[in-house]
Amino acid sequence: MADSSYLTVLGLGFILGLRHALDSDHLAAVSTVLAERPSWRASGLVGLSWGVGHTAVLLFVGAIVLVLRVPIPEPLAAAAEGIVGVMLIVLGGLLGMKLIRERWHLHHHDHDGRSHMHLHSHRDSQDHGHAHWWRESLRPLCIGMAHGLAGSAALLLLVVTSADSVIGGLMYIVVFGCGSILGMMLIGLALTLPVMWSLRLGRPLFLAVQGLASVGSIALGCAIVYRIFLAESLSE
């Protein structure tokens, strides 16, 4: 029979995994992806893919750290976090460029003696009728892997200092990862609510939500890059 204290630790790991999904950089990255895919199916798939990529990297790095009993070098941990900042800037920039490329604008015309205004796009081509699941999964999977690498240092330091064995440490990471997967899937559904809501109320509001996701991702990415690279270099 499993030790009750060990089960308590695993339960705490699951709860921490749920909480880990709420980190601001996770929310910003996933929101830029979901802003392009206003559907309930995509929200669950994006959250699942992010969580799988996140957990896979944690397990890979965790196995190395637990076997060798060495901490992750601080410069490497800082570089990984800086990469996440750059990734957020890129994700926000890509979403912003998509909005600009489609050139949505208000168009005025007369119809049956009445003046009308509607939103119009000069998009060169129409999107494919349906998206393949692996294409929808690839980007959030890579995003989750990057976040897993960036967040591995703090988690694995806790695991290494508290785990009695390699198997026990890996089990903790698996449970933590399951919590983060569930948390991100729930967050994906929650983030999709305002996107779907804005789309139903009108295209202008939907574009405003997309623009907010783009600007927010870029701003947070710039803040992370400044803190990791520029602030440290200025303090030296």
- Any idea what the radius of gyration is? 21 Å
Query: How many structural domains in the coordinates?
Result: 1
**How is the largest sheet built, in terms of strand order?**
1-2
- State the end-to-end CA separation: 54 Å
List low-pLDDT spans.
116-120, 123-130
Counting helices, strands and paired strands, the structural category is: mainly alpha
Instruction: Indicate the percent of residues in helices.
Output: over 70%
Question: Strand count, sense and closure of the main sheet?
Answer: 2 strands, antiparallel
What is the string of helix and strand elements? HHHHEEHHHH
Tally of contiguous helical segments: 8
Q: What is the total tally of β strands? A: 2
Oligomer description:
single chain
The share of residues in extended strands comes to 5-15%
The backbone outline, from C-alpha atoms, is: globular
Mean pLDDT across all amino acids = 78
